[in-house]
Amino acid sequence: MIQYRNKHNGRIVTLIDSEITDAGNILHTVRGEDEGNLDFIGQYHLEKHWDIIITDACDTDSQTLITSDEEE
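Structure (tokenized):
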């Protein structure tokens, strides 16, 4: 399971699916952990506004936050 945390508001979403559109853009389908609604995030916004959280499948309480060195 791959989750992301929004850098600005702390919202957590789970990655459901990724696809390349006919225009060549990568579009990710995510489900919000708080409300359960589906949402769509483009690759650019995913990289710029979200940090990936790796969740160990065996231990759901252990989460590791991975951030890039290039924070603005």
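The CA atoms of residues 15 and 30 lie 5 Å apart. The longest strand covers residues 12-20.
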